[in-house]
Amino acid sequence: MSHHNHLEEPLSEQSLSSLSLTHVEFNPKDPLSYTYAYITLSPLIILISYVSIIVARRELMMINMFFGQLFCEMLNFGLKKWIKEKRPNDKLGSGYGMPSSHAQFISYFATFASIYLYYKITFHNNSRKFPIILGLIIFSCLVSYSRVYLIYHTTKQVIVGNIFGLTFAIFWYILLEKIIRPLGIFKIIIESRLARYFYIRDNSSVKDIVKIEYMNWLTLIGEKEGQKTD
């Protein structure tokens, strides 16, 4: 992250271009600008979290959600090439600005996570879902607004990005849970030799999975403690 411009230096007869995923320009004299500069990097952190959680938990839902995120990004790339609307400041960011990829990314993430949490995950006390969903909504709004505050996008570009991200998340959830799952495709995937080899699982129909996993952990710890005393 930086608040100065990249300098291109000649190498032989060619110039080098900058490719930095964490390069965000902001006003160093504005504390709020500094905060939003970190907030706007959230999609990169989420991508790393996707991969980490998939590797650690081998959960089919997370894999499906991740693929949806990638398809949503592909959609955004196509829309930008088709609409070809410039950013409010040509010196900030690269490529076209309509719709905002950050806004579309975070809107998909927050919407799909909220829908899946509400309909597919059960807690002992389901009222716990609502603070999580509210947090996702607030987080999505902060990331989206950061793009306007830092002058990387216009308000319209961010709103359109949010609309496409939200719409695609709803579409992806319906496709997965209302069309693909009833066809038994996920069951075939889970029972495949490849899925068994990589320990891929589907806990979408397991009620109170958080409590069950915790109780299993307590049982495992108890067994280990029992082995030590034998």
From TrEMBL:
It comes from the Eukaryota. One of its GO terms (cellular component) is endoplasmic reticulum membrane. Pfam families: PAP2. Pathway: Protein modification; protein glycosylation. GO terms for biological process: lipid biosynthetic process; protein N-linked glycosylation. It is an enzyme of class 3 (hydrolase). Keywords: Endoplasmic reticulum, Hydrolase, Membrane, Transmembrane, Transmembrane helix. Its EC number is 3.6.1.43. It is a multi-pass membrane protein. This is Dolichyldiphosphatase. It comes from Rhizophagus irregularis. The lineage of its organism: Eukaryota, Fungi, Fungi incertae sedis, Mucoromycota, Glomeromycotina.
